[in-house]
Amino acid sequence: MPLPMTTAPRQSAVRPEACPEDGLDFDGRCLRRGAGGCGPDDRASGTVADRPGAADKNRIALAPAFAHNSPMLARVLSAAVNGIEAFPVEVEVNCGWGDTIIVIVGLPDAAVKESRDRVTTALTNSGFKFPMGRCTINLAPADVKKEGPSFDLPIALGMLAASDQLQSEELDNFIMVGELALTGAVRPVKGVLPIAWRARAEGRAGVLVPPENAAEAAVVEGLKVIPVANLREAVGFLEGEIKIEPTKVDLSKIFDHSYDEEFDMAEVKGQESVKRALEIAAAGGHNALMLCPIDLQAKLVLLLPEDPALATTLKSQN
Asked: Does pTM top 0.70 for this prediction?
């Protein structure tokens, strides 16, 4: 006569005294003690799945078991040149979930788009970690075209701030420009003088510029001009770990000589229409686009009121 089949009651494993993480595992066992989680009585009564309504609780409590870093947004100030004037540009960087890719929006030209490769290599060679996931970089305002490699430095600093590798309260106080080499060094860029003017007009404390552009930017009074040689040095200054003295120039010493002995409009042979146009532009304070030899541009200083910033720019182009 066959023996009747019996089913042994299911035995639940005894859980450890302390749970390593919050939430529930895939078997429905609670991984947290207290605060609604497993306690001494739960360890003797079986798994959470054995209790009424456990299915709903599992769906709610599973989320904390998968810890992750929330996407972060960072903003770095920069500027761009349009003609002879500069306008502010906000470099917004968001690093979050997705495939590891860098997307730059805001009407960037080819040089700005190529900054993705320069910045990523500079970050790695400077000892920083490349942010994993999708990094979206927005150059605002988005309806104005951005040109040149001067956004390399602010983009790199924005990626570091968005990935929590840079923590500073000085990001809103400085306008930053500079091209990055693959080694992380900061190379000179064009248009630093109008950018410095814009920084002062915006009420910023100063500018972060390449060392080669520091003297040009220092012509603008009432502004801290901080020369940064590389990306690591810029991060150290913003975090307060490195002290960098602002660049200062003696304007009176620069213009302590007469330009009359060096330049004379009478030396320009012919070109009467060009000289007449320069005289009208100087007298009326109009803009003038000069596609001509540097010597003729330098002679324009004779026609203008004393303007140290303009004279410095023309002198630097010689």
From this structure: no
